[in-house]
Protein 1
Amino acid sequence: MTSRSLSPFDRLLSDVQRALETVHGAPPAQRANPAADVPDVVLDEPERRHAAGLMRINHVGEVCAQALYMGQAAVARDPGTREHLLDAAQEETDHLAWCADRLVELDSRPSLLNPVWYAGSYAIGVLAGLRGDGWNLGFVVETERQVEAHIDHHLDTLPAADARSRAILQVMKADEARHADHAESAGARRLPAPVPGVMAAASNLMKAVAYRV
């Protein structure tokens, strides 16, 4: 049986469905939750709120990653680049599901601004992709390196007893590093100096807002 080639309209519908699932649904993970066998403990209220704020930031980060990759893939010129982006997006779906599970366990919720985060990140992904596949992959590298750095910070500031969140973040960090390494080996170009700084400033704003809202 031959597979049907998707038209631009088919791809648009697929992207819309993916966006709705990411923002409003609960896309299933393909891999087991790294915290599945880690005993849970009862955190005191300030610790619970802090852990929930950090995991909400990470959940928003995965919403943004989904949108970035889907926006970049929508305009990628090389099929290999597009496949790389979609493969990375699938692993980010695992992260999204794991963070959502942990938020429920912490008696909390995702960010109320997820539709805004998704729309903005998708637009940025399209703009990055239109610059060409080398810049497209360079954007992946810089994004993943910055995500690694903020996960490191969260690992340092999580409540010591919150081993379940820690187990999730450790696997996420390893995945992000692998995505960056793969993008570099696929021909990523180094982004011009102002761009990483702008990306970091936008990320810091997102984290400050998502921690609470």
Protein 2
Amino acid sequence: MRLFWLEFKRLTTSLTFLIYAVIVFAFIMLNAWSMVNSHLSKIPQPGSGDYDYIISKDDATLKTNALDQLKLEHHSNEYETYPAGFEKIVSLNKQKQAKVKLILNQAEKARTKAMLARQLQDVDHLLGGHSAYSHQNLQGFSFHPMTRREALHDHQLIMTKDKISGTFARFFADIAGIIVGVLPTIVVISYCYSDRRSKALPNIQAKFTSTGKWLITRYAASLLSLILPVFLTGILFTVKVANLYSHFSINYFAFLQATVFWVLPTLMVSTAVGFLSYAIFANFIGFAIQIGWWLITMTIGARQVSGNYGWLFIPRHNSLHNVAYYYNHLGQLTLNRIGYTLIALALMGLAIVIFNFQRGGKSYAFKFKKINYH
């Protein structure tokens, strides 16, 4: 425990951590603070015209939207795809264009979602994959403006299941997840690099402490340090929500729950990447790799920000509505978060193996230099 608090103090008193904390706080406040002023307790009124978009369960909506887009792209022969998460416009030759036309005609006669999905998957294959017509992206065509009935149901879920604060906490977690998906990596690398620069690494490694205990303790201390700005910002949000909705029953722990359940697994991975990449490269190359992963998941997630979980590294729910979708897919999101928690632990396990190898004086990162303990 003494080692844990020593590591915690070293990190939280560093200039790098201070910069990190300021950036995290500013990013969340700038992107989420104004949303708390939304009047969620107000019952949706008929004819207001300001209902949000939600993901429909109606297969007819999905079919109409998907075929309308396919017709437009077929007409212009410009199809949007996202290989590696970045947009690429694909144009087909006459033979493949004819195949798409045939698929379009067949898809219009599809009676079930399964039949439609199989036919549109053929379009995805013709485009080389990574299009909106693939099985995993097809649900994105289900967005439509809420009807009054759907808006009332959405409002009921906000007031009863979310207890208002849960709605804001979900939006808060979406924003916080974006920033903690990348910044902790460079903080950890900088933290490790400072040991090397001060020549403290050989002394640390030479202590009578197992590599596993040393690295796990440092990892745990880093997680507590790096989640702290998110947690403290969440307290500010809780206070504001409590003041604005003092006459309603709210969940005072919603922001804490969202931080632990939604944000922490992402933070665990980005932190673990920092330790592992430093063990391998002993420099800041790992941060460039993490930026690449972050950009890819952000690009993919941007296709459906109002509710997009699956296996995204950073799950998206950048909306105060679409609440029914959240609860209907909560199991999927839970598996996602458990999965990335396990990935983070696996990455740290690999880092322990590498550090342990280095601790024996056999090699040092990719440079394969001997560590001198004398």
Protein 3
Amino acid sequence: MRRTFLYAWLVVLAATAAVRAQECDRSDDSQQMMNICAGEDYQAADARLNKAYQDLIGSDDADDKRLLQAAQRAWIAFRDVECAHTTAASQGGSIHALEVSQCLTRLTNERIKQLAASANCQKGDASCASPDDSDEVE
């Protein structure tokens, strides 16, 4: 499991290096360019996540801050392993970096929504635990 996670993370890092070397051109539909664009999308989502997290953690008291930090660390670990798991079938293929970046972006955007919903909650408001009740599974 750790080896798969490490490999997936190395692929993402390699894709990130490629992003820095070349900018996204969405009119180019080559696999390399799609990988680059997906990497940029993830980097943008990660920047928004970091901003949302910093905004939220700056407003918490010490106990809430400690719990939020632990929750964020656990969520990051979950996100990374979840993406390694869900993209394992493409490992070794040219589309793998794209799939990993898309997974990271999707889960990161979901987390941003969770943090935003949490920022709008009043302390003790149990009805505020879910960012969007319409997404509940019935």
Protein 4
Amino acid sequence: MAAFYSSFINLLLVLLLLHFSPITSARISRAAFSTGPIGFSLELIHRDSPRSPLYDPSSTPAQRAEQAALRSISRSGHFASGLTATPASSINSVAQSPVRPGNGDYLVTLSLGTPLHSYWAILDTGSDLTWTQCRPCDSCTGRTLSMFNPLASSTYKNQGCASRGCTALPAGERHCNADAVCGFRHTYGDGSFAGGDLASETLWFDAGVKFSDVAFGCVHDERGSLALHQVAGIVGLGGGPLSLISQIGSSVSNKFAYCLVPRTAGKLKFGAAAVFPGSGALKQTPLSKQGEQGTYYVLYLDDISVGGKRLHIEPSRSVVPAGESMKGIGPVVIDSGSTLTTLTKDVYAAVEKEVANAVKYEFAPPPKGYELCYRADFADLRYFPAVTFHFEGADWTVPAWSSFVKAGEGVMCLAIVHTDGVNVFGNVAQQNVYVEYDLGKGMLSFAPTDCTKA
């Protein structure tokens, strides 16, 4: 009898915790309670894969490479606004604003509502709010039938103006509607915007896992290039309070990981499913305090080597997070949505000079967005140097086949370009590497992996 009452009281405590959980801890439902963290995974589809809704069969490799470079440079410029040497309070508010729409490289499908509605969304570790187009949306051209209908879902709830989710929105992007519903308007770098209601819904994942009361944006108005976009929404995986990982973090040990297959697909894993599939040891480097508190995930870069030769690059003090001491080259945003790695001018110049000294192939005119290209094919990359990024406490060696990209027939270009923004470690450098974000410990772990088997 005592054991019965003990079990009953424990269950009652769990139910109370779930009932009063804040916006940063969405409720989880499964067939039965579990004493440990849960795990689940999503398939990532590259935007240029034939399986992607963004796939354009008429696009050439050169056109796709150029578009990837321009997207990467654009994202780097946006990230600069969140990492400038301004007071921490200003950084946190700016860092939650979204990047230009459609600037991500990997897509997932999400299931939302009751009954569930599935849709495509761009994965973005550089923004927080998850949102999708909702009926009615007269400005969402050509996608009326595929939109989420909040009136058809029994679990849809609008968020009030005093809700924690509403107050977590940047002050300049939230407003209170006449019916006391929290509204938002995200304005992007190109002048486009997405506006609508902040709401909560049920998100469904594999193995019968679902999360209740997840805050998301229900978009009823889109303008500019966003209104012509072919993907219905964004999954925000940044570090801010409204991001998906922040809301479900307590159920998944505040941990997620991904493994990217070049130009095709990959896996995104949470919690207990985020287990390193390899046999070697993982390397670890700390996420900065700003990376944990704000939207972006920030690492510290001490130096860079090309072909095993250390460059001893002097620190750049042009962009320093408030309250942080300078270490080596400085802060780097690690980003799943940027194709290329971008480096500030002086840092890039040192890398380019050493790569040019090491590569003996003929130079090729660079396509738009690139700077150092050679007349070579993929098979020739065995003669090209690897580039090692010496992060704080861990060296990340990017082999030649991930340090260069095909940018045309018989043209290979360095997958690193210079930027007037900030240093960004792009996803080409992360291909076939298991990358784990442990937000509870403030650590990023990584190891080379065959991501086709992860």
